[in-house]
Amino acid sequence: MTDSAEPPAVEARTRAPRAAAILSLVEALVLLGFVVFYVVEMAGGATSDLSRAATSGALILVFAVFLLAIARGWWRRSDWVRTPTLLWNALLLPVAWSLHESDRTELAIAVAVLAVASIAAALAAPPREPVDAAEHIDDTPR
After folding, report:
1. I need a surface site. Which of 56, 68, 76, 119 has the fewest CB within 10 A?
2. Tens of pLDDT along the chain (142 residues)?
3. CA distances from 128 to 12, 55, 78, 94, 131 (A)
4. pTM of the model
């Protein structure tokens, strides 16, 4: 009888990058929702400063694309995504605190939980195996 389940070590090694990818995707989708909100506000004439709304929407779109790239990197197990993930989510913690101080506690808790979960997933993801230089020496004559 063969067991088709992955060994616990392999499962643990793949769980954290998948969680980081999903959390980064959620963050990107939230930001894309804000972009849609800004576009609707501009189209409906609800904003008093069109250039400020357009600039904010464009900047949020840039960060959303950045987070989509991070999510894709986590899904592909790229080794560059850990640092931007940690940096982005560390910057979300003061945002959560400021939301709390402006009496938006529910939103602050959601942002903080998402940021802490993303940081934990990024830290739990194992680094890629180091490349052994001796195995990759080019022996071809020149």
Report:
1. 76
2. 555 566 666 666 689 999 999 999 999 999 999 999 999 999 998 888 889 989 999 999 999 999 999 999 999 999 899 999 999 999 999 999 999 999 999 999 999 999 999 999 999 998 876 655 555 565 566 5
3. 14, 38, 8, 30, 9
4. 0.80
